[in-house]
Write a structure and sequence with these properties.
The complex is a heterodimer. Chain A is mostly helical. Chain A contains 14 helices and no strands. In chain B, strand 17 and strand 18 form a beta hairpin. By secondary structure, chain B is α+β, with helices and mostly antiparallel strands. Chain B contains 18 helices and 25 strands. The chains are: A mainly alpha, B alpha+beta.
Chain lengths: 321, 561
């Protein structure tokens, strides 16, 4: 298959998937019982007249299909709407949330990948040894932990040593010097990112270990050994590279979810990210926020899968054959 | 269900720095504890920043949009109000120093502070109050709907001079002061441009910090879902706070908030969960418990038109039996861990004179409940479930997240166990709050059977009483209750200028609800606050220090010498 054909084909499928996801997102939240007006119109002495006025204001008096067309039209113009709750543009609100989420989840995920790959490779290399048993069991142990429980335990253990919540020292008047501000955020990031790392690295360890073991049983690795290549070189040059394909899929998916935030972690550590925003928006039936948040999540996941497909094409010659 | 406080207004603009905060100097409020200058000699140490943790949030700094309690407390401390409550729940001066009403009760005249200034140095006069109220009236069915309840029946608000405000109503209104206590006065020179035209800009204005403030504090910095920092307003017309500033940090979970308090990252927290009281007391924090305004209830569908499949719920004997089968003492002991009182009427005792003390919590008696159900003809069927009108007495109880997310689950289990002993089966249906409310309203209140929820009463009984009126159908009414006599009494109490007469009407309405039982009031939850021993003189107003009812607590709080 020619590379251009492949890219166009994958790109087309990605666009179709995004369109389908947008449509499902739109109708999914409207299937839920309760509307935004139910919430917002509940001010003392509110009247049914006010409820109706709000319904019209939010465009909820129109049929769902009309609302859908309006939503698509606005989306094509780059307009994600105005939050029912905050009365502010959704894009503006979500960008703020994303700015908070991405650093924390990126640090946590990258750390999880690095630790997972290292422990996975070591386990495979020393298969059956004590370090392998320790590493594998620890990975299963942390992988099985409920995120919220682990987060709370870390919170309690490090009480007084590390900040309990938020993403910066809140009680600071004026403007902090940049580096001090950065250090402050870093300190606040330790616990949430560590929670994410601990709960996520186990799956990488297990997948890398399994993939490495499979690869190390291949004939070409045996040949390399027979040729007398040093073990480290065999691992690095021959086994590891080929074992990375399944990991690539997992990483692409996980990176996509970075923008979705880690809802539980953001709630436990009061981290003001997009996961928390979407969690709150569901309770408030803030459709524009929900649609915006899920749109970003959808596009990110699909885009990164698209990137993974392209990398596969590049890394695995069998696909192009 | 919770009423997120009342309405109030906010407003933006600049402010100035703490005296000791040199330009761009970082003032880790931990250092706040050190305070600045020393005190007046009576054990009061001036300075410091009080760091408060909150499990709520500020959803908007615009009073025409805000919904959450912390937003309204913020407005209270940064904006002038005509009146405020003192810790005894009496009205005392704020921006208005005195007031009088006309003999027909339709005109109220307020005399306001002379020579007052906003934090940006512009004059703060009665004209600002008139502007705020007039704007509320003008757009009450649109952009300012959020504050419509506070200007009910108001016709006009005028300022004949800088220190006089005249407010006119189309009919006598009993709770004028309580309504106006909820209206933050906004600086006209900031807000006027947003009130132009159709007024829609009033809702989209974010009112960003630093906000032009007129209260004891200036909102200097605000980061959504994270922090709000207040510094003392040197232009404030009232008594100057002892503290240099106040910081509010928002937490999503109680555990993180308690941990932050215990580890010294906070000085106080707004609400202590009952489960954390012992821990905090052991750690030598000042933990204060006081009767609160929240009451929990079991709602019985009271719509006379409800579906035949559960129409027996209208039977007074059944309602009384349900009431008798609720072990309120056990609920207080087990669910509230002792931090509350058994409930009786819809107006909690903490509201003072509005609560009818003659109405006592119904005594727990399964024998009596069984007897009443027998008397009603609901015979015990197979499997121990009674039969009513040909169908088993098995009911779905709508459980909103407000209830299941806290101690309500335990209360439900107590009730469910006891109801089983009288042959009534309860089946919980867990929903989020929005879905739960819509489930109650569904089919015009004909479909739902029971629900468990809670209410947060206000200091004045008007709103709480309004919830059961026919006019509240599909808005606040969550019982399907609608009674002509009740509505008449509601109108009468709202126009009763004589407090004693109004009190009598409020008592009669409570009696009516107590006997007809659209709500079975389970308990009144105590409010529990905690703060470090380094702070003193932080009075509570209706159970809270960080409150939308008064500026007094944080005007008086100070570091201990």
């Amino acid at each position: 298959m020619r590379s251009t054909d492949y890219v166009l084909k994958r790109g087309f499928f990605a666009l179709v998937t995004i369109f389908v996801a947008i449509t499902i997102n739109f109708f999914l939240f409207r299937v839920l019982p309760g509307t935004a007006v139910t919430n917002i119109a509940r001010v003392p002495h509110a009247t049914q007249k006010l409820q109706h006025a709000l319904t019209v204001e939010f465009g909820l008096d129109k049929s769902k299909f009309q609302q859908y067309l309006i939503y698509l039209k606005n989306l094509l113009h780059g307009n994600m709407g105005v939050s029912f709750t905050y009365q502010q543009p959704v894009s503006h609100l979500l960008i703020q949330d994303l700015k908070n989420t991405i650093p924390m989840v990126t640090v946590g995920t990258v750390a999880a990948i690095v630790i997972g790959v290292i422990t996975g490779v070591l386990s495979a290399w020393r298969r059956g040894s004590v370090p392998d048993h320790i590493s594998t069991n620890a990975a299963i142990f942390f992988y099985a932990f409920p995120t919220q429980w682990l987060g709370l335990m870390l919170l309690i253990i490090f009480a007084g040593t590390l900040p309990a919540g938020g993403m910066q020292n809140p009680f600071v008047f004026g403007t902090e010097p940049f580096w001090q501000h950065l250090a402050d955020i870093g300190q606040h990031m330790i616990l949430p990112a560590a929670t994410l790392t601990l709960t996520a690295y186990g799956s990488y360890t297990l997948i890398v270990r399994s993939s490495m073991l499979e690869t190390m049983g291949e004939d070409y690795v045996l040949t390399a050994r027979a040729k007398g290549l040093p073990p480290r070189r065999i691992i690095r040059r021959h086994a590891f590279r080929n074992a990375m394909l399944p990991l690539l899929t997992l990483v692409a998916l996980d990176l996509g979810f970075i923008v979705g935030g880690a809802v539980l972690i953001e709630v436990i550590f009061s981290w003001p990210g997009i996961g928390l925003a979407m969690y709150q928006a569901i309770g408030q039936r803030d459709y524009p926020m929900l649609q915006g948040g899920f749109l970003i999540l959808t596009v990110a996941v699909i885009f990164l899968n698209f990137v993974a497909d392209l990398l596969y094409f590049r890394l695995d010659p069998r696909i192009s054959e | 269900m919770k009423l997120r406080r009342d309405h109030q207004a906010t407003r933006p603009h600049r402010s100035r720095r703490l005296p000791f905060a040199a330009a761009a100097v970082v003032l880790a409020l931990a250092a706040a504890a050190c305070g600045s200058s020393s005190g007046s000699g009576s054990g009061i140490k001036e300075g410091g920043v009080y760091r408060l943790g909150s499990a709520s949030s500020i959803d908007s700094l615009n009073p025409y949009v805000a919904f959450q309690a912390d937003a309204y407390s913020t407005f209270e401390y940064i904006y002038p109000y005509l009146v405020q409550y003192n810790p005894k729940l009496q009205f005392v001066p704020d921006f208005a120093t005195s007031w009088q009403e006309s003999s027909d009760g339709k005109t109220w005249t307020f005399h306001t502070r002379a020579n007052a200034k906003w934090s940006d140095g512009k004059p703060l006069t009665a004209a600002d109050a008139a502007f705020t109220l007039s704007t509320g009236i003008k757009f009450q069915n649109g952009p300012t709907a959020n504050t419509a309840g506070t200007i009910a029946h108001m016709v006009s608000a005028k300022a004949p001079n800088a220190t006089t405000l005249v407010v006119t109503y189309k009919q006598p209104v009993a709770n004028v002061l309580s309504q106006l206590q909820q209206v933050p006065i906004l600086p006209e020179h900031v807000w006027a441009k947003y009130a132009a035209g159709n007024g829609k800009a009033l809702m989209t204005f974010t009112n960003p910090a630093p906000i032009v403030s007129g209260g004891p504090f200036i909102l200097d910095k605000y980061t959504a879902k994270q922090i709000a920092l207040f510094k003392r307003n040197p232009n404030y017309y009232g008594p100057k706070p002892h503290i240099d500033g106040l910081g509010l940090q928002f937490f999503q979970t109680d555990d993180a908030e308690i941990t932050a308090l215990k580890s010294g990252q906070l000085d106080g927290i707004e609400t202590v969960p009952p489960t954390a009281v012992a821990t905090l007391k052991a750690a030598h924090f000042v933990v204060r418990q006081s009767p609160g305004t929240q009451w929990d209830d079991l709602i019985i569908n009271s719509n006379p038109q409800q579906e035949a499949s559960h129409k027996e719920l209208l039977n007074p004997l059944l309602r009384q039996a349900f009431d008798d089968a609720i072990d309120r003492a056990q609920i207080v002991k087990t669910s509230l861990l002792g931090y509350g009182q058994p409930g009786s009427t819809i107006i909690p005792p903490s509201t003072g004179r509005w609560h009818d003390p003659s109405l006592k919590p119904v005594a727990f008696s399964l024998a009596k409940a069984n007897q009443l159900l027998d008397q009603a003809g609901f015979k015990m069927g197979p499997n121990g479930v009674r039969i009513a009108d040909g169908h088993p007495m098995s009911y779905t109880v709508i459980m909103p997240a407000d209830t299941t997310g806290s101690y309500g689950e335990r209360s439900f289990q107590i009730i469910q166990t006891d109801f089983k002993k009288i042959g009534v089966q309860l089946n919980p249906k867990n929903l989020d709050n929005t879905a739960a409310y819509d489930a109650i309203l569904a089919n015009n209140y004909k479909s739902f059977e029971l629900s468990m929820w809670d209410w947060q009463a206000l200091a004045d009984p008007d709103f709480m009483l309004s919830v059961l009126t026919c006019g509240s159908f599909n808005v606040w009414n969550d019982t399907g209750y609608c009674h002509k006599n009740y509505d008449s009494m509601y109108q009468a109490q709202g126009a009763a200028l004589n407090p004693a007469q109004r009190q009598q009407l409020v008592y009669q309405m409570q009696n009516m609800v107590y006997n007809q039982r659209p709500y079975l009031v389970l308990d009144y939850l105590d409010l529990i606050e905690a703060h470090s021993t380094r702070w003193a003189d932080l009075p509570l107003v209706l159970g809270n220090s960080w409150t939308e009812l008064s500026k007094i607590p944080f005007e008086s709080v100070h570091l201990t010498g």
